[in-house]
Amino acid sequence: MSPHSRSCLAVVAVIAFARCGENVPPLPTEPPPVPQATQPPAPASPPAPVPSEPTPPPPGRNHPPTVTLSASGRGSCHPTPDRTCQVEMVADAHDRDGDALRLEWHGCTSGTGVTEPCTINRPGEFTATVIVTDVHGAAARESATILGTNLPPVVRIGPQRPPDPAPANTFYAIAGDEPYDPDDYPPYMNMACPHARVTTSGPCHAGIGLCGGAGDAFDIDLTTTAGPGTCVVEATVTDPWGAVGRDRFSFGVLAP
User: Fold this and answer.
1) Partners of 7 in the beta sheet?
2) Which residues contact 192 (CB under 8 A, 6 or more apart)?
3) Can you point out the beta strands (E) in 183-243?
4) Closest CA to 172 of 162, 163, 158
5) Rounded Cα distance, 209 and 219, in Å
6) Nearest CA to 238 among 175, 184, 205, 193?
7) Does 123 sit behind a cis peptide bond, omega within 30 degrees of 0 on the bond before it?
8) Tag placement on the chain: N or C end, fewer CB within 10 Å?
9) Bridge partners (DSSP) listed for residue 245
């Protein structure tokens, strides 16, 4: 076969192959996916608050109670040897946590109440103490001083006294008012006279002429003796507790 013939066959083969390819349609291809826009997640809303019941303080955070004390009257009273007296004590207790409280009294008081008496059986100072404890064992303590009072009796020597100096061996009547004990008895109704005494020193001697009676008297009979010297006159009244009221005066006495 000549070169020209081989060339023709090659051209025919190419054309045939091309026509054969035209009879087979190309396969369709999937377009590339289009990226979708993404939305950020919505933020979660906070939960609604739930009301809670108040809780007691945690261990170690309990608050101790508080308490103050007060006393009736002036915080004092007057006892006698055969009769005690009392002063009412009042405790004002509080607890910040609202706990139940227990009270316990000591000293001149006893009991577990809010109000308890302090019993006084003699003159002097007494102590009332209250201890307040909550249910957790926390405690508060408060004390107060109560006074048992006793005043000395009152005695006054009358104003009609001997001159100064006075002659020797001369009698004088000194009239005064009845002594009394201000704790117990008014002047017109008292028991001071049985406990009244008159003493002297120096050139004189004296005694009680009259004490009490209808005139509420306190009369002293005084006599000077041979001087010279100084006469000292003292009147005393002692109450049942031993407190002493006194009055005195002095004057010169001449030689006979």
Assistant:
1) none
2) 153, 155, 178, 179, 180, 181, 185, 237, 239
3) 196-201, 204-212, 217-224, 229-238
4) 162
5) 5
6) 193
7) no
8) N
9) 237
**Phi, psi (deg, nearest 5) at residue 15:** -65, -40
This prediction's pTM: 0.67
Residue 139, phi-psi category: left (phi > 0), alpha (psi -120 to 50), beta (remainder): beta
How far apart (Å, rounded) are the C-alpha atoms in residues 113 and 100? 14
Quote the tokens at residue 46. 């906070």
Q: What is the pLDDT of residue 214?
A: 83
Residue 66 CA to residue 94 CA, distance in Å, equals 5
Cβ neighbours of 178 (radius 10 Å): 22
Using the structure block, give the residue that is written with the tokens 């008297």.
217
Tell which residue, 193, 165, 197, has the closest CA to residue 181: 193
Q: CA separation (Å) from 122 to 22, 65, 87, 91, 146?
A: 141, 34, 13, 24, 12
pLDDT along the chain (256 residues), means of 10: 45 39 48 52 53 51 96 93 96 97 98 98 98 97 97 96 98 95 68 93 97 91 98 96 97 97
Q: How far apart are CA 96 and CA 65, in angstroms?
A: 7
